[in-house]
Amino acid sequence: DWVDSFSDIDEGKSIVKLAIFGDSRTDDSEYMNWPDYTKKYLDGVAGIRVHDIYNYAVSGQSISQQKVLCTPENIANANVVVIDIGTNDIQIMTNEDTFATDLETMIDVCLTAKKRVIIGVPDLFYTKGQAGSRGQGSVNYDRHKGIRAKCMSIAAKKGVYFIDKGQILGPILAQYVNPSIQESYVSLGLDPILYDNIHPTTYGRMILGREYAKSIMAVLMEKIDYATVDKLDLKANLESPSFTGSVVVPNAVNANQVPT
Question: In this structure, how many other beta carbons lie within 10 angstroms of the beta carbon of residue 95?
Fold first, then answer.
């Protein structure tokens, strides 16, 4: 059964101490942001206990600023590191090669310290004009492709896990909030995933929290078929709607990671 599937977790690895780098979509400014949901979903599953979350995410920061915080000292007590950055870099049009270099630097710091790494690939957003003059005045929504591609390629190059938030969250469309674009979408009454054109709603944060919980379980396990993780029911830890999505695992070059 599924309990036996976790027999490869080594002693001590069932304790999670998570370090997180990111921006306002990740920091503590939101009540119950996705790291809080990750803890609720993960703690107590398959013997895992979440002891600490070191959240270094800062609202408004780009990767160059978060890179400064990604030091051996700041991640010393963590065993899993999540780097969830890129939305602000898309908006300020950070050079894609510079972004890639900074991301590699952060990953190298983590791998040198023998930490498990998960990259969060930025999802999409839309503008205030597209939303019908509501929400934040986000810009350059159409510049996401390069940064997203860099996140995936660097993760594959370094042999670390990544989750594609664009895939996990599904269509992120202004049509869900602006009836002048498509009234039939608004009339569905679906959660728009973003509450202000750029930040996830409570529902969106719950989805992300669940997927990060699954990815953390995956990186803690050795020699296990990822499909087993993907099928786990984490709703026992938190009453919530059913979600869909999967953690993307690139070809692993580290022997301790799960190969595709």
Answer: 10
C-alpha 239: how far from chain center = 21
Rounded CA gap, 201 and 216, in Å? Answer: 22
Alpha-carbon gap, residue 71 to 105, rounded angstroms: 10
User: What does DSSP say about strands 116-121 and 161-164: parallel, antiparallel, or unpaired?
Assistant: parallel
Q: φ, ψ for residue 83 (rounded to 5)? A: -110, 105
CB-count burial class (<10 Å; 0-12, 13-18, 19+) for 105: middle
Contact 122, 147 (CB under 8 A): yes
**Listed residue (231, 110, 97) closest to 161, CA to CA:** 110
**Helix/strand/coil for 20:** strand
- The CA-atom distances, in angstroms, between 141 and each of 86, 87, 95 are 12, 9, 15
pLDDT, tens digit, 9 for 90 and up, residues 80-106: 999 999 999 999 999 999 999 999 999
Give how far Cα 223 sits from Cα of 4, 18, 209, 219, Å: 13, 22, 24, 10
Contacts of residue 145, defined as CB under 8 A and 6 or more positions apart, other chains included, come to none
- Strand 15-22 relative to strand 49-55: parallel, antiparallel, unpaired? parallel
Is the separation of the CB atoms in 49 and 43 below 8 Å? Answer: yes
How high is the pLDDT of residue 13? 53
